[in-house]
Amino acid sequence: MPRNTPPEPARPPDDSLLIPALILALREGYGAARLRADAIAALTVAIVALPLSMAIAIAAGGTPEMGLYTAIFGGFFVSLLGGSRHQIGGPAGAFIVLMATTVALHGIDGLILATAMSGVMLAGLGVLRLGSYIKFVPYPVTVGFTAGIAVIIFASQIKEILGLTLGAPEPGPLLEKLPVIWASLPTLNPATLALSAGTVAIIVVLKRLAPAVPGLLVAVIAITLAAMLGDLPVATIGSVFGELPSHLPLPGLPEISLEKLGAVLPSAIAFTLLGAIESLLSAIVADGMTGRRHNSNMELVAQGAANMASALFGGMAVTGTIARTATNVRAGGITPVAGMLHAGFILCFLLVAAPLASFIPLAALAGVLAVVAWNMIEREAIRALLRASRGDAAVLLVTFFLTIFRDLTEAIVVGFALGSVLFIHRMSSAIEVRAHTSTPPENDGDANGLAVEHDIVVYQIRGAFFFGSVASISSVLDRIAAQNRGLILDFSEVIFTDSSAANLIEGMVHKARKNGVAVVLACTDHATRVQLFAQGIKPPLVQYQPSVDLAKQALRRRIAQ
């Protein structure tokens, strides 16, 4: 149907509304039964998060209390403002490599400042409604960099697992780290190795025999008691970091200058990119377990607020955590109140039982992280992707090895680019131009198999009509014959159209007019017309009709004139 302006677009999706999931949950009603279920789930998650938060903070080059502050403030704001009803926020193993690098380059102050900057960026992404685009990272990329991070996390814990005394500072890059570790093997501490192995064994056995038991906490408590009763010569949180404070710090930020902001900007961008991907993946996992749908933009706003709050109280980078979120769902958490209570339970531990943490051996926390690293590797997914196609396997392996041997941000960017090129190649191969199937049987076809009715030729385009497929479509449309007085382009099977395709259509239309061929575009949707109108393809240059039959009628009337 001819129009000078395209029709109005449909209503925006739900993600455009920045409404926290907590408000939506409370609108449904909140009583004692829901509070009881949320409290039980919160306590379960807090038990898992306690040792894990301290272990991640230590591995990232921070202090144990930094991990607890992150879980308290980050976890609270992720649930208070988030777009998922079940998301649990806190420090994540995936950030260990980035945070450790930031601490090595810029110190603890640099880490806190980068966390605050990342919070501003994440909130900005959510306010600008960019959450849906973050989820476009190809699956092989996420599997590859997660596996790469797992390898790096385990490598970072070898020293603590073996109780080594290094003759030089431990290098960050894996290829530089391994020779130093190898040279220090004669300093191996058998007691430390036994405690690390015992931690792993307890976690694995409990997961198999009693999965409902919080294996991480039980393992840490058991190993701590063993070290104390045996008076073993091993490093503990107290001997390395001193006693944990039993109070919250006052809010504040490190000294800020333009020079410092510029220095930590790359780290802040990396935190933002990884935090957005990790949190939205975690929310998607929760959606799959519960059948609900999260608001990705609201989730990014919450992640931003959580990172700013964490930095304000001396914490580190916050994101949605898949393992703790899944634990929350399995434990019966119903609303975001569970995540807020989980932060409250960790706060109670800090205020009441912080001195007890001084006795925890670092070997126990290293064992916890070793298990975390092993669980991060999606072995079934890796096997499936390696068998799926050479393209998916290439994206997976390139991302994996770049993560290990180069840089996480570089790995994600290169993996995303490679995955995008692979997608473009596949989509461009799927485009085709063929005879319209609705042509009456009495009509004859031309030598190219195109539908011909008297002086009218019908082309049907099927697939994604975009820059990747323009070349193949152009080779067909260039064969427009001057003996045909009417041309119909059927867009009913076109998935989408971009500006490159619109430019091709414009050139084809002008060529047709020079040859005296009238052009009608049939079955175009709103998005296609927006592209074509922007390129100047409007009546009277062409006609628009809602169906091929109406297009034929319009051309017959014109030919008859």
From TrEMBL:
GO annotation, cellular component aspect: membrane
Annotated compartments: Membrane
Membrane-crossing residue ranges in chain numbering: 39-60, 66-83, 88-105, 111-130, 137-158, 178-204, 216-241, 261-285, 305-323, 343-372
Bilayer disposition of the protein: Multi-pass membrane protein
One Pfam family from the record: STAS
Superkingdom: Bacteria
Record keywords: Membrane, Transmembrane, Transmembrane helix
Keyword presence, Transmembrane helix: yes
Gene3D superfamilies according to UniProt: STAS domain
Domain STAS: 455-555
Any Gene Ontology biological process: transmembrane transport
Main location: membrane
Annotated protein name in UniProt: Sulfate permease, SulP family
Organism: Roseicitreum antarcticum
